[in-house]
Model the fold of this input.
Amino acid sequence: MRLFAAVRPPADVLDHLETALASVRAGTEPGPGRGPLRWTPPADRHVTVAFYGEVPQGRLDEVAQALDAAASQVAPFAASLSGAGLFDGRTLWVGCTGEGWAPLMAAAGDVGVGLGRPADRRSRPHLTIARARQGGGRQGTGRARPGGDRRRPGGPDPAALAHALALYRGPGWTVGEVALVESHLGAGPGGSPRHDVVHVAPLGTGPGALWQDVGRAQD
Done:
């Protein structure tokens, strides 16, 4: 089993993001499944807090119990999606605000250490929204359209989309659980991964949890 731990934003948060994406890419995408970017389906968008890799099926209960214990020590916290950027010029992401991400990622990463994996220490919580297809990263400049619109032939430039989303700020929500997810590579639409939630661990059930202000997202 290929496992990771992730936070799944609620539907209204994902819908708000999808509306923003539709606005910035309007008129630049040639059609579903085409263009230089492979978009993550909205239902599959998540914030990975720890990656565990291949784990034997027989250890699933052990991993789930360890994640329960780790999550119990992290209090629910306010979060929102905010800003955007690129990894390696190919992976388009939206960032996350909230003071609870660092302790959650540390706690979830320790579960992997218990499995004998190297520590997975993530410093920047983010939600991946698109990846450049093979050979579909930056393209030629293209011919300028009237009014100075220099759109790439075949689709938008990832860097231009990241710039357009740099000031994006989504609605806030309270992170109250973390999911243990099994990833099936190539089993989703168009050869994308398929993600199945195999366990959900609630946050803040342990006596040592440090409670945050969940009334609003942190800047």
Notes: Residues 136-154, 211-219 have pLDDT under 50 and may be disordered. Residues 24 and 164 are 7 Å apart (CA to CA). Helices lie at 11-24, 60-72, 101-114, 158-164. Residues 2-138+151-202 form a domain with the Cyclic Phosphodiesterase; Chain: A, fold (CATH 3.90.1140.10).
